[in-house]
């Protein structure tokens, strides 16, 4: 009787143990969705001493450089959805890093303020599908006229 009870217990416990020990791996998203993402940042350019036109222009340029660096830093820290950050891709491929830098230069300046110590520049950058294409997560769609196999003929 004890032997029969032991066998039944083992027969019940083995499938239960196997079922509980199996792991399920969550499915990762193929790519991040940046369709509605806008990055915003502010940059500062200091002016020392008396304000002149030349000092103001230089401060604006320094503020723009600062805001572009901040936007690029935010982009580099984005997750791509495949277990990597944009920074990981940019470190491996210099072309991607240059494309990201060029993409950042397309940020829209939305505000310019004079402060006590200098200039403050506010900028925003819409990512969307064009950014996905920049880092290689999406293919840009070519129009039929722009595809490599066709040529327009002039008459």
Overall pLDDT metric: 76
Number of extended strands: 3
Could you name the ranges where pLDDT drops below 50 across 5 or more consecutive residues? 23-31, 139-155
The SSE string, one letter per element, is HEHHHEEH
Helical residues, percent? 40-55%
Alpha-beta content class: alpha+beta
Assembly level: single chain
Our count of helices gives: 5
State the distance separating the first and last CA atoms: 100 Å
Radius of gyration: 28 Å
Largest sheet: 3 strands, antiparallel
Indicate the overall shape: elongated
Beta-strand residue percentage: 15-25%
The strand line-up of the biggest sheet is: 1-3-2
Structural notes for this entry:
This protein has a domain at 38-139. The protein is built from five helices and three strands. The protein has helices spanning 2-21, 53-76, 86-92, 94-104, 128-135; strands spanning 38-46, 108-114, 118-126. Strands 1-3-2 form a three-stranded antiparallel β-sheet. α3 (86-92) packs across α4.
């Amino acid at each position: 009787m004890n032997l029969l009870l032991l066998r039944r217990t083992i027969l019940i416990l083995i499938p239960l143990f196997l079922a509980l020990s199996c792991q399920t791996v969550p499915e990762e998203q193929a790519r991040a969705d940046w369709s509605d993402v806008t990055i915003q940042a502010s940059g500062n350019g200091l002016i020392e001493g008396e304000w002149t036109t030349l000092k103001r222009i230089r401060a604006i340029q320094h503020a723009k450089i600062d805001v572009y660096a901040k936007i690029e830093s935010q982009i580099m820290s984005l997750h791509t959805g495949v277990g990597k950050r944009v920074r990981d891709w940019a470190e491996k491929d210099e072309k991607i890093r240059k494309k990201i830098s060029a993409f950042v230069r397309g940020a829209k300046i939305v505000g310019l303020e004079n402060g006590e110590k200098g200039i403050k520049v506010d900028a925003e950058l819409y990512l969307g599908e064009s950014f996905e294409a920049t880092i290689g997560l999406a293919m840009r769609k070519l129009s039929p006229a722009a595809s490599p196999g066709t040529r327009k003929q002039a008459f």
